[in-house]
Amino acid sequence: MTSQQPEITIGDQTQLSCPEENANIFSRLTFWYFNDLIKLGSEKVLEMTDLYGLRSEEKAAHISSSFQNEWESAVTSSNRSNSKLLKVIHKVFGRRFYLAGFLKIIYDITQLVSPMFVQWIVGHIREGENSSVFWGYFLAISLFLLQLIGAIFLQQYFFVVMTQGRRIITALMTAVYRKTLSLSPVVKKNFNNGHIITYMTTDSVKIGGLVKNLHMTWSCVLQIVVSVTMLVIMLGWPALTGFSIIVVVVPICWLITRAVRRIRRSALLISAQRKAVLSEVINGIRTIKLNVWESAFVDKISQIRKSEMWKNTQVMLANCFTNSLMRVIPIFVAIISLAVYSIYNSLEPKIIFTCLSYINLLKAPTTFFPSLLASFVEAKISLDRIERFLTAENVEEIQVLTEESEYAIQVKEGSFSWEESVAICEPSLNTNAIEKESEQHQLVDTSSGHSSVDKVSICKTFSLMNINLNIRKGSLVVVVGSLGCGKSSLLSALLGEMKRQHGTITLGGTLAYVPQQAWLKDATIRDNILFGNPLDEDKYNRVIESCCLGTDLKSLECGDRYMVGQKGSMLSGGQKTEGGFGQSSLFRCRCLPFR
Fold first, then answer.
1. Which tens digit of pLDDT belongs to each residue from 540-591?
2. What is the rounded CA–CA span in Å between residue 364 and residue 329?
3. pLDDT given for residue 157 in this prediction
4. In angstroms, how far is the first alpha carbon of the chain from the final one?
5. CB neighbours of 466 closer than 8 A, spacing ≥ 6?
6. What is the value of pTM for the model shown?
7. Residue 50 predicted with pLDDT over 70
8. C-alpha span between 36 and 23 (Å, rounded)
9. 3-state secondary structure at position 570
10. What is residue 451's predicted lDDT score, i.e. its pLDDT?
11. Given pLDDT bands bounded at 50, 70 and 90, which one contains residue 345?
12. What confidence tens digit (pLDDT) does each residue in 282-291 have?
């Protein structure tokens, strides 16, 4: 019924394409295309090659690209509303959201109509021989078909909201990750690792759950209104005596929800603090072990965890109370309503069964409604947190010169500053600065000679003022000067990490920065140099030779397959630097600033 074609490869293994792409309408409605995988899973432990690949529209690259384009358009628009993120989510994922709403309302209609068929069937049975047999069969078959159609639409609804929720989570996670790579250094200090991890895990999941919760909310309201209306029609005013309980309980649940909102907000702050401390401990575990600080950090983490657990316990107790309250409400509604009705009227089976059916429909709405309100509160908090992060200031964008330009770097009347104090060893410094135009292998001395930099401020805000710099393509320029004169700040300004007050920076092509401490991931030397690029043997060998890595690779047991460890811990300082040179050289960028 379905065909499976190789789609992608994981390592040396081929992964099958998703059979949903070629499934017919019956297979899609009943998820028949999934039977082969279920059968295979019952026979053996599933491996990666047994699983289906994602459809193109489900892949993170496609989802991230669509979301990012709309988000950038929303940010650059003149609209200054505080709900940009929600509007972008609606624009990108709204179509399937409304499809899910259509599926849900069809299911709700089948459930709300079913009690009427129960009433007609019971009435038909009570009439006995006076009623048509065919009418009885028609009612029974109709009730069966209603339940069947409802089940199909309900499962399709769950499939749509779950997949759409996962898409939203994927879009938000990739957007947060992308934002971490472009945050300005000053703003980055306001968002530690704990915050970012919380945005990518907890907050994005809560926002993704909105797809389901929004439909559940109006569905609960619809079921409550229709069920109450039908009960009033059948029982009359005695039905209102039972529903008086709901009038009393709803305000109580609303007050509890407000309290949960306050507790949840403080719990999120404590959670971010705990994750930040854990990240700090993991990154500095070697230092902690060497200094035998384990007990101190364990106590610190345990104390934060206890505070977090107490907040979570309060939230769970409140949720348990409201859920328990809502679960028993339909029972009391049924008892009170039917008891009062029986005082003034005789109870007939068709009235009892129909009323119980409608009261039974109230169980799900009254049970889930408080948790839905709480989920909206949490999602609103998460939306605000992620939107505040995504709209934070980015690193200054640098204009790229055309290939025909003779300059690799141009700075015109540039003034840059750090927005916070920078520790400077010298109490004061008066310097001229950086020479204008550099020649081949030019040496620029910031401690003497003519310059176009008026001053370097080392007061509360460290700044570089009125810089004019022209560096030709192919030239080697060295910036030298006394300690604290602004050499590193100049590189930071060229990278866009210092805030530009005025002036322009233009580059004659791409730029690759080689920091003083090379950034190496826990992988092989080859993987660190390639940095995700496909292997080109000739190009790779030229990089090895030009960066003088050949001798070091020969001395290592596994050559370029040698694992460098976390942050290059298995390499010497010189080998780390050579690895950093190799990373930058492979990209063949126009500008290569070294520190």
1. 888 888 777 777 777 877 787 878 777 777 777 777 777 777 777 777 776 7
2. 11
3. 93
4. 62
5. 413, 414, 415, 452, 453, 454, 503
6. 0.68
7. yes
8. 13
9. coil
10. 39
11. confident
12. 888 888 888 8
* Runs of H (alpha helix) within 401-472: none
Buried b (16+ CB within 10 A) or exposed e, 352-362: eebbebbbebb
Please indicate whether residue 348 or residue 310 has the higher confidence score (pLDDT): 310
Both tokens assigned to 8: 């992608």
Dihedrals phi, psi of 243, to nearest 5 degrees = -75, -10
Residues 6+ apart with CB under 8 A from 240: 232
User: Cα–Cα distance between 319 and 372 in angstroms, integer?
Assistant: 11
Q: Measured between alpha carbons, how far is residue 587 from residues 305, 559, 579, 584 in Å? A: 45, 22, 13, 6
DSSP structure string for 95-115? HHHHHHHHHHHHHHHHHHHHH
Q: CATH top-level class for 78-390?
A: mainly alpha
Residues 6 or more apart whose Cβ sits within 8 Å of residue 390: 71, 75, 85, 175, 176, 179
Whether pLDDT at 398 is above 70: no
d(CA 406, CA 353): 88
Structure-token pair, residue 449: 């000679």
Burial pattern 279-301, b for ≥16 Cβ within 10 A else e, equals ebbeeeeeebeeeeeeeebeeee
Reduce the DSSP state of residue 390 to 3 states and report it.
Answer: helix
Q: CA-CA distance, 222 to 228, in Å (whole number)?
A: 10
What pLDDT sits at residue 430? 36
Residue-range domain boundaries for the chain: 6-70, 78-390, 399-507, 525-586
What does the pLDDT average to over 409-434?
56
Whether the CB-CB separation of 219 and 103 falls below 8 Å is answered with no
